């Protein structure tokens, strides 16, 4: 997944970063602004609880070894949402969790392996909590790839362990490898005293550190924040979601918008930033319901496909030079902005939905419907998905850019907000 | 020479979400929208009053509802975004029964798992045969299933690609004589099947862009197809030849979402995403009327069948049509009389 979050003080500064992440190889970016240093909230007060729980767990195992009893690590699974079929009857068991413990010696070889791997994770978490350092899931895997077998095995066990202990993943001092990038005129002041200045406007942005490690933020002149999702291969990561949620809690006046592709995954990603994810429902402070869905919306597309004869002759839409013009537009805002509301539509930015897309759209609609009351936001999301299915098209955000320059479109959209 | 149509009436906010599909009977019009209820408005009264609301018909909203073209108007079928098909029936209109007996009732429901049959793609467009006995529905993997409504069984499946590999069938129609089935696809292809022989008879080219509407003329001699190309292609059904296009001079016409022939087969109605509804004189190949209440997208346009019944005062005898879409309202037009 690629996500970019951006803060910019004035609309004009947007230009500086936009081209870079449109073509960015990096997952995340954020640009900022505003004028003051704000204390970052202590990430969680559950951390101490997690340490004592982990220690109690380890003690129980030691006791069991002494007494010769069976060793048990309490362990419950967050059931994967995958097996919800499209039969239409599902969604009943929203609370689908299974209870169990992992034993040693296990009833199966599989269980023995699981115990060993889990025990190692607990050990690593314990060491991280004691030392006050944070360890990444990736790091855990590379401690012993033979034992863990796969990164996803580690990811699952970490999340299930956190869920079992009733804490967040970060409370175990375990985080996902940083994916988010921050770009814009703000400074992140970390607990170790280092200052990460994010206004390297021409470049790729600063990797988002874990929320727990941020002590203060200097907002300087930041007035709004834009989250940009690029190349959705997975889901918004916890670190970025925590960061957004924390930002909103300390600076609720700072408008936060999200820009995602017009496709079912884009809607799902936007919803994850807003409402959290089903799978990691036990995590706290990871949702930002105030997030504004900036686009791409069906109206942006309808405007284009319904435009009659007035402009955009066929020939003018499919100029190949998109990539190269990105470089050229990095520094200066283009003086001509006549066509911003109806930017060019490179043929490749709109494509038909695949069967998988259509299924995914219905899946997201079921989630919205199952959430109960249809307020304005939810009705809006339903409408966008319905239109997507009716039109049978999806559109990437290049759809609204003007040969690689998305600032004109953003100017208009964000001006409405400010 | 153009024809004149006037706005006869607009039912504002006919649904709480945008209207995706219309299906007329001789005395009423059914509408389906992004909300869960189907609605029925009378077309015999100049105020087009709401006759019936069918609540919770389709939980995730409904994208297609159909009645039989030229049929009695006692059967309707609807497809929800969740993939379920529902067949609705009511007593034959006009026999002065109590109002309650004139209401639509659920007759048959095909769950998503059975509607797509054999685990194929999800169901999309539907059409009813003129005798109201058969239901044709398309799937996202390019098949067309035909169901016998009374027997409640699938009697035919037309494939348009290697098993499960067909292009999304976005539109379907059945000829009034029951002989032919036509499908319009995302790939731009239009296929015609002979129902007696149970096989494809024509593979029609000409549009190259997604086809969103196909419609047989009442006499079953012609097939009209339209979609993202923004033009209407006309095909002869005797030999499967492309016999012409209906277009207006425009470099980039809006996507056409809906087509309907009038009862005499002289005129075609089209609706498009730019909010324009057009009436075409088929013989002369020209657009004779263009209307646009708003610029918001139209999803469905339908002629109201000519009816033998006496219409309410003020209804006249002129031909009428209805257009609906993103505005959520039903707009009724009638031909200006005295021309």
From TrEMBL, chain A:
Please list the GO biological process terms of this entry: meiotic DNA double-strand break formation; meiotic DNA double-strand break processing; reciprocal meiotic recombination
Extent of Polar residues compositional bias:
307-332, 342-354
Tell me which EC number(s) this protein carries. Answer: 5.6.2.2
Coiled-coil annotation reads: none
Record-annotated membrane-spanning stretches: none
Task: Please list the GO terms describing molecular function.
Answer: ATP binding; DNA binding; DNA topoisomerase type II (double strand cut, ATP-hydrolyzing) activity; metal ion binding
**Cofactor(s), names only, from the UniProt record:** Mg(2+)
Q: Which UniProt keywords apply?
A: DNA-binding, Isomerase, Magnesium, Metal-binding, Signal, Topoisomerase
Q: Taxonomically, which superkingdom?
A: Eukaryota
Which intervals hold domain Topoisomerase 6 subunit A/Spo11 TOPRIM?
Answer: 231-302
Catalysed reactions, semicolon-separated? ATP-dependent breakage, passage and rejoining of double-stranded DNA
Q: Which residues form the active site?
A: 142
Q: Where is the signal peptide?
A: 1-24
Q: Where is this region: Disordered?
A: 307-358
A Gene Ontology term for the protein's cellular component: nuclear chromosome
What are the Spo11/DNA topoisomerase VI subunit A N-terminal domain coordinates in residue numbering?
A: 113-174
The record's section on InterPro entries has: Spo11/TopoVI_A, Spo11/TopoVI_A_N, Spo11/TopoVI_A_sf, TOPRIM_Topo6A/Spo11, WH-like_DNA-bd_sf
Q: Which family does it belong to?
A: Belongs to the TOP6A family.
- Name-wise, this protein is DNA topoisomerase (ATP-hydrolyzing)
Automatic annotation (TrEMBL), chain B:
Which keywords accompany this UniProt record? Repeat, WD repeat
Q: Pfam families annotated for this entry?
A: WD40
Q: Which GO terms describe its cellular component?
A: nucleus; protein-containing complex
Record-linked SMART domains: WD40 (SM00320)
Quote the InterPro entries the UniProt record gives.
SKI8, WD40/YVTN_repeat-like_dom_sf, WD40_repeat_CS, WD40_repeat_dom_sf, WD40_rpt
- Superkingdom of the source species: Eukaryota
Keyword Repeat attributed: yes
Q: Which segments carry the WD repeats?
A: 123-157, 256-290
Q: Does the keyword Repeat apply?
A: yes
State what protein this is by name. Uncharacterized protein
Organism encoding this protein? Thermothielavioides terrestris (strain ATCC 38088 / NRRL 8126) (Thielavia terrestris)
């Amino acid at each position: 997944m690629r996500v970019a979050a951006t803060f910019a003080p004035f609309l004009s500064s947007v230009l500086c970063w936009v081209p870079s992440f449109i073509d960015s190889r990096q997952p995340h970016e954020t640009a900022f602004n505003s004028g003051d240093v704000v204390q970052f909230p202590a990430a969680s007060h559950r951390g101490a609880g997690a340490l004592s729980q982990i220690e109690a767990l380890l003690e129980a195992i030691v006791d069991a070894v002494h007494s010769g009893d069976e060793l048990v690590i309490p362990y419950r699974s967050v059931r994967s949402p995958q097996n919800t079929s499209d039969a239409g009857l599902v969604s009943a068991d929203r609370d689908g969790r299974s209870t169990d413990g992992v034993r040693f010696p296990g009833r199966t070889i599989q269980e023995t392996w699981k115990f060993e791997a889990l025990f190692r994770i607990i050990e690593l978490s314990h060491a991280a909590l004691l030392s006050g350092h944070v360890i990444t899931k990736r790091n855990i895997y590379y401690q012993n790839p033979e034992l863990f077998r796969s990164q996803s095995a580690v990811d699952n066990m970490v999340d299930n362990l956190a869920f079992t202990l009733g804490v967040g993943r970060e409370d175990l001092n375990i985080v996902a490898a940083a994916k988010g990038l921050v770009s814009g005129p703000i400074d992140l002041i970390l607990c170790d005293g280092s200052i990460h200045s994010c206004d390297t406007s021409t470049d790729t942005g600063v990797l988002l550190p874990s929320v727990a490690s941020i002590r203060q933020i200097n907002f300087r002149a930041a007035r709004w924040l834009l989250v940009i999702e690029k190349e959705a291969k997975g889901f918004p990561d916890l670190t970025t979601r925590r960061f957004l949620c924390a930002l909103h809690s300390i600076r609720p006046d700072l408008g936060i918008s999200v820009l995602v592709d017009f496709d079912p995954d884009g809607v799902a990603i936007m919803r994850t930033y807003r409402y959290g994810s089903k799978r990691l429902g036990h995590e706290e402070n990871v949702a930002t319901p105030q997030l504004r869905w900036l686009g791409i919306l069906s109206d942006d597309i309808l405007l284009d496909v319904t435009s009659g004869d007035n402009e955009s002759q066929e020939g003018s839409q499919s100029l190949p030079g998109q990539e190269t013009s990105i470089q050229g537009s990095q520094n200066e805002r283009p003086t001509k902005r006549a066509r911003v509301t109806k930017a060019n539509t490179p043929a490749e930015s709109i494509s038909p939905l695949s069967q998988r897309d259509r299924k995914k759209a219905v899946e997201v609609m079921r989630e919205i419907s199952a959430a109960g009351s249809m307020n304005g936001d939810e009705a809006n999301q339903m409408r966008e998905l319905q239109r997507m299915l009716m039109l049978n098209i999806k559109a990437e955000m290049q759809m609204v850019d003007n040969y690689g320059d998305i600032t004109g479109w953003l100017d208009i959209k964000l001006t409405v907000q400010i | 020479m153009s024809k004149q149509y006037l706005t006869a009436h607009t039912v504002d906010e006919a649904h709480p979400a945008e209207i995706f599909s219309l299906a007329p009977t001789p005395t009423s019009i059914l509408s389906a929208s992004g909300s869960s209820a189907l609605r029925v408005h009378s077309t015999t009264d100049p105020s087009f009053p709401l006759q019936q609301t069918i609540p919770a018909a389709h939980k995730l909203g409904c994208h297609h509802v159909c009645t039989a073209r030229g049929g009695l108007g006692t059967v309707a079928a609807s497809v929800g975004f969740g993939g379920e098909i529902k067949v609705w029936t009511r007593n034959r209109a006009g026999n002065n029964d109590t109002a309650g007996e004139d209401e639509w009732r659920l007759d048959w429901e095909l769950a998503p798992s059975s509607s797509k049959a054999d685990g194929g793609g999800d169901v999309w467009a539907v059409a009813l045969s003129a005798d109201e006995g058969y239901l044709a529905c398309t799937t996202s993997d390019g098949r067309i299933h035909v169901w016998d409504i009374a027997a409640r069984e699938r009697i035919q499946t037309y494939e348009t690609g290697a098993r499960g590999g067909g292009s999304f069938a976005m539109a379907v129609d059945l000829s009034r004589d029951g002989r032919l089935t036509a499908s319009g696809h995302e790939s731009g292809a239009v296929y015609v099947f002979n129902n007696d022989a149970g096989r494809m008879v024509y593979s029609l080219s000409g549009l190259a862009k997604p086809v969103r509407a196909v419609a047989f003329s009442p006499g079953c001699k012609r097939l009209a197809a339209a979609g993202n190309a923004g033009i209407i292609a006309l095909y002869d059904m005797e030999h499967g030849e492309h016999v012409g296009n209906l277009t207006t001079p425009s470099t980039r016409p809006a996507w056409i979402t809906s087509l309907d022939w009038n009862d005499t087969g002289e005129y075609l109605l089209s609706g498009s995403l730019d909010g324009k509804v057009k009436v075409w004189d088929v013989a002369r190949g020209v657009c004779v009327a263009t209307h646009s209440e708003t610029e918001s997208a139209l999803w469905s346009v339908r002629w109201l069948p000519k009816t033998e019944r006496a219409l309410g005062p003020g209804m006249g005898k002129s031909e009428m049509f209805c257009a609906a879409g993103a505005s959520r309202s039903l707009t009724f037009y009638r031909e200006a009389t005295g021309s």
